[in-house]
Amino acid sequence: MTTGGSRRIGVVYDVDGVLRIAPLRRQWGRLQALVAHGSRDRRSLLGMQRVLGVLADGEHADVYFLTALPDKMARPLRVALRHDQYPGGTLLMAGRSLISGWLFGAGLERKRTTLDRLIAADPETSWVLVGDDAGHDPQLFADVARDHPGRVAAIAMRRLLEVEDASTHTDGDGPPIVRAPNGEELLPGLREVLGLDEAGRGSRVDDWFLTESQRGNPATRLRPWTEGNEVQLRVHGSAYYRILAARLATTGPGDQVLFLGWRGDGDQQLGDDGPTVSQALADAARCGARVCGLLWRSHLSMFGYHVTQNRRLAADLRAVGAEVLLDQRIRPLGSHHQKLVVIRHDTDHPRDQGSADDVAYVGGIDLVLGARDDIVHRGDPQSTAAADAYDRDPRHDAQLELRGPVVRDLHEVFVERWVDPTPLVRLPWHVVPDLVHRLPQRASRLPAPTPDPPATGTCAVQVLRTYPRRTPPLPYAPFGERSVARAFIKALGRARRLVYVEDQYLWSADVARVFAAALRRAPELHLVAVVPRPHHDAGPNPAMIGQAEAMAMVHEAGGDRVQILDVENDEASPVYVHAKVCVIDDVWATVGSNNFNTRSWTHDSELVCAVLDAERDGRAPADPGGLGDGARGFARRLRLELMREHLGLGSDDDPILDPDAAAELVRTRARALDDWHAAGAVGERPPGRLRRHTPVHEQVEITLRRRWITGPAYRMVLDPDGRPLRARLQRTY
Question: Which of 46, 109, 550, 605 has the fewest CB atoms within 10 Å, counting from its CB?
Answer without folding.
Answer: 109
